Automatic annotation (TrEMBL):
<dbReference type="Pfam" id="PF01210">
    <property type="entry name" value="NAD_Gly3P_dh_N"/>
</dbReference>
<keyword id="KW-0963">Cytoplasm</keyword>
<dbReference type="GO" id="GO:0006650">
    <property type="term" value="P:glycerophospholipid metabolic process"/>
</dbReference>
<feature type="domain" description="Glycerol-3-phosphate dehydrogenase NAD-dependent N-terminal">
    <location>
        <begin position="10"/>
        <end position="166"/>
    </location>
</feature>
<keyword id="KW-0444">Lipid biosynthesis</keyword>
<feature type="binding site">
    <location>
        <position position="146"/>
    </location>
    <ligand>
        <name>NADPH</name>
    </ligand>
</feature>
<feature type="binding site">
    <location>
        <position position="285"/>
    </location>
    <ligand>
        <name>NADPH</name>
    </ligand>
</feature>
<feature type="binding site">
    <location>
        <position position="146"/>
    </location>
    <ligand>
        <name>NAD(+)</name>
    </ligand>
</feature>
<feature type="binding site">
    <location>
        <position position="38"/>
    </location>
    <ligand>
        <name>NADPH</name>
    </ligand>
</feature>
<protein>
    <recommendedName>
        <fullName>Glycerol-3-phosphate dehydrogenase [NAD(P)+]</fullName>
        <ecNumber>1.1.1.94</ecNumber>
    </recommendedName>
</protein>
<comment type="pathway">
    <text>Membrane lipid metabolism; glycerophospholipid metabolism.</text>
</comment>
<dbReference type="InterPro" id="IPR013328">
    <property type="entry name" value="6PGD_dom2"/>
</dbReference>
<feature type="domain" description="Glycerol-3-phosphate dehydrogenase NAD-dependent C-terminal">
    <location>
        <begin position="186"/>
        <end position="326"/>
    </location>
</feature>
<keyword id="KW-0521">NADP</keyword>
<keyword id="KW-0547">Nucleotide-binding</keyword>
<dbReference type="GO" id="GO:0008654">
    <property type="term" value="P:phospholipid biosynthetic process"/>
</dbReference>
<feature type="binding site">
    <location>
        <position position="18"/>
    </location>
    <ligand>
        <name>NADPH</name>
    </ligand>
</feature>
C-alpha cells in the first residue's frame, strides 16, 4: 500500500471495529499507530498476531500498528489522538485519560452519538472533559462501514473542524488511495448527521423487519433527513452539510446496508424481538438505541419536531410495538413537504 502522508505518531483509543479499521487507514497512510483497549485478549492479539478476530475477522494489520492496555503508553508522544469508544462511555474514559492527553496533539472523534443527560456532541465532550482547544479537535464522519473499509473498497469521508488547518492536517494523515477525506468547518452539522442517521437506520431496519419494501424505506430515509436538517439548522449547522457525505451519504450506507449494526438492530425489532433480546445477542455498539433518547431531548430543548426519532425512542425505551410506529407516522396531520 503506497503512503500519502508524512509519518506521525498516532494514538487510537478503542480497539473495536472502527478504531481498528481507522488504524489500518492511518498505517496505510504512513503513520505509526498505538491502539489502546480495555481487554488484554484484544490488545495482546493485535500486538502479537496483528489481527483483531472478534471485531474484524480475516484482517491482517500492518506492523506499524501496536496495542496496549496502558493508556499512558498509548498517548506518550502522540501527535494525533483518535477517540473510538462508544459515545456514552466517552466522558468517563476522558476523565481517566485527561492527565495523559498531550496538550499539543490534534484530537479526532470517530464517534457518532449524542450524550445522554447533556445533549452534548462528542467534540464538545472532548473539549470540556479533555480540556482541549476546539481548534485542535476534528470529527471524521461519512459512509464508512468498517467491514467495507477493511476490504479497502474506495470510500469518501469528511474531516470537520472549526479550524481549517486542523481539518487539513487530519485529512492529510488519513488520506489513502481507497480513503478520500474531504474537509469541512461545519462540525455541528457533521456530528448531528452522524448521530441521527443511526436512529433513522433503526427505523428503516424496523420497516424492513416488518416486511415493508423500498418505497417505505426511501420515505423514512428522506423524511429522516428532513428532521435531521431541521434540528441541525436550528443548532447552527449549514443546511448543505446534510446533502453531503455526513448527511445523505451516511444515511444511505447505514440505512441500506446489512453490515450496519443499527440497521440490523432495527430489523430484529421489526421481526418481533425485544430490545433486551437484541442487546443480548449484539456484541457491538448500536449507537442509535441510546441516541434516540438524547437526540429527542435535544430537539425538544430547542422546539424542533422529530417524529421519526420520537417513534424510535418510543420503541427502544418505552416498548412500543414497531408496527404501531407506522400507524403513528402515517396518521400525522398532512403538511407541505418543506415545512
Ligand atoms: N463500525 C463502524 O463501521 C463505524 C463506527 N463508527 C462509530 O465509531 C464509534 C465506535 O464504534 P465501533 O468501533 O464500531 O464499536 P465496537 O462496538 O466495534 O467497539 C467498541 C470498542 O469500545 C470498547 N468499549 C465498550 N465499552 C467501553 C467502555 N465503557 N469504555 C471503554 N471502551 C469500551 C469495546 O471493548 C470495543 O473495543 C461509535 O460511535 C460508532 O458509531 C463510525 C463509523 C463507522
Ligand atoms: O457509521 C457507520 C457507517 O458510516 C456504521 O454504522 P453502524 O454503527 O450502524 O454499523
Amino acid at each position: 500500500m503506497s503512503t500519502t502522508g508524512t509519518s506521525r505518531r498516532v494514538a487510537v483509543l478503542g480497539t473495536g471495529s472502527w478504531g481498528t479499521a481507522f488504524s489500518m487507514i492511518l498505517a496505510d497512510a504512513g503513520n505509526d499507530v498505538t491502539m489502546w483497549g480495555r481487554r488484554a485478549e484484544v490488545t495482546d492479539e493485535i500486538r502479537r498476531q496483528h489481527t483483531n478476530g472478534q471485531y474484524l475477522p480475516g484482517l491482517t494489520l500492518s506492523r506499524r500498528i501496536t496495542a496496549t492496555q496502558d493508556v499512558a503508553e498509548a498517548l506518550d508522544g502522540a501527535q494525533v489522538v483518535v477517540l473510538a469508544v462508544p459515545s456514552q462511555s466517552l466522558r468517563a474514559n476522558l476523565e481517566r485519560w485527561r492527565p495523559h492527553l498531550p496538550g499539543d496533539a490534534l484530537h479526532v472523534s470517530l464517534m457518532k452519538g449524542i450524550e445522554l443527560g447533556t445533549g452534548r456532541r462528542m467534540s464538545e465532550v472532548i473539549c470540556e472533559v479533555g480540556d482541549v482547544d476546539p481548534e485542535r479537535v476534528s470529527v471524521v464522519t461519512g459512509p464508512n462501514l468498517a467491514r467495507e473499509i477493511v476490504r479497502r473498497d474506495p470510500a469518501a469521508s469528511v474531516v470537520a473542524s472549526a479550524s481549517k488547518d486542523t481539518a487539513e492536517a487530519v485529512a492529510h494523515a488519513c488520506a489513502t488511495p481507497y480513503f478520500r477525506p474531504y474537509t469541512e468547518t461545519d462540525v455541528v452539522g457533521c456530528e448531528l448527521g452522524g448521530a441521527t442517521k443511526n436512529v433513522v437506520a433503526l427505523a428503516v431496519g424496523m420497516a424492513e423487519g416488518l416486511g415493508m419494501g423500498d418505497n417505505s424505506k426511501a420515505s423514512i430515509i428522506t423524511r429522516g433527513l428532513a428532521e435531521t436538517t431541521r434540528l441541525g439548522v436550528r443548532l447552527g449547522a449549514k443546511p448543505l452539510t446534510f446533502s453531503g457525505l455526513a448527511g445523505v451519504g451516511d444515511l444511505i450506507a447505514t440505512c441500506m446496508s446489512p453490515l450496519s449494526r443499527n440497521h440490523s438492530f432495527g430489523v430484529k425489532l421489526g421481526q418481533g424481538m425485544t430490545v433486551d433480546e437484541v442487546v443480548a445477542e449484539t456484541r457491538q455498539v448500536a449507537e442509535g438505541v441510546k441516541s434516540a433518547e438524547s437526540i429527542l431531548a435535544l430537539a425538544g430543548s430547542v422546539g424542533v419536531d422529530m417524529p421519526i426519532v420520537e417513534q424510535v425512542a418510543a420503541v427502544v425505551h418505552d416498548g412500543r410495538d414497531p408496527s404501531e410506529v407506522v400507524t403513528q407516522l402515517m396518521s400525522r396531520a398532512r403538511k407541505e413537504e418543506r415545512r
